[in-house]
Amino acid sequence: MEARKRLAPYTASGRFLAFRGNFAELDSIAELAGRSFDGILADLGVSSHQIDADERGFSFRPGALLDMRMDRRSTGTAADLLNSLDEAELTRIFFLQLKVIGSTMGTSTELAALVNLMDATGVRPLIDRQLPMEQAREGFAAMAEGDVFGKIVFTR
Hey, how many other C-beta atoms are within 10 angstroms of the C-beta on 74? Predict the structure, then answer.
């Protein structure tokens, strides 16, 4: 909410517009209809702050909550799911996550929209390092310690 307060003068002047939406649905977001803009600031993933903050439930630290909601207004945490779903349903969810998110970091529609944006703007992600999957523990430890300056890419 602090950011909203600081940006209020820009919002009031029409120079800034903040809203929640799905990047894959950018063309159908009502707040953007009929508007032109010089730039878009998009939050497209998990930040190191979310991983570092135990209360967010993404932390790798012992004793941290198991929440994992990107939008904290959503109901049900990861802990709730693990405690309420049977093994078959958990296996199905884990399989879907690995197949969809693990290979594309989202849906194929979201990936296509991101590739189109990159092609149109020339923007490229900042890559800190590439590691083979066998060194995933090292990569996650670096993220947990905040010892990264960009994305870590895990390869097979």
Answer: 9
